[in-house]
Amino acid sequence: MAAKGIPEDVLMDNDLIKDLVDVAKDSALLNGVLMRTKETPNSSEVVTYAPFTLFPSPVPKDTFHQALAVQTHYNRLVDKISQDSSFLEEALSTTIKVDDFTGRLFNIYRHVLQEGKTQSIVLGLNRSDYMLDQNGDGSASLKQIEINTIAASFGGLASHTPNVHRHILKVAGRLEDSKRILDNNPSAGLAKGLAKAWELYGSERAVVLYLVEELQRNIFDHRYVENELWKRDGREVAIVYFRNGYMPQNYTEQNWEARLMMERSMAVKCPDISTHLAGTKKVQQELARPGVLERFFPGEPDVVDQIRATFAGLYTLDMGPEGDKTVAMALAKPDQFVLKPQREGGGNNLYGAEICQVLEGVKQSTERMAYILMDKVQPRPVHNYLLRLGTPLKLSTCLSELGVFGAYVRHGQDMVLNECAGHLLRTKSDEHSDGGVAAGVAVLDNPLLV
Question: Binding of Mg(2+): at which residues (predicted)?
Answer without folding.
Answer: 146, 148, 344
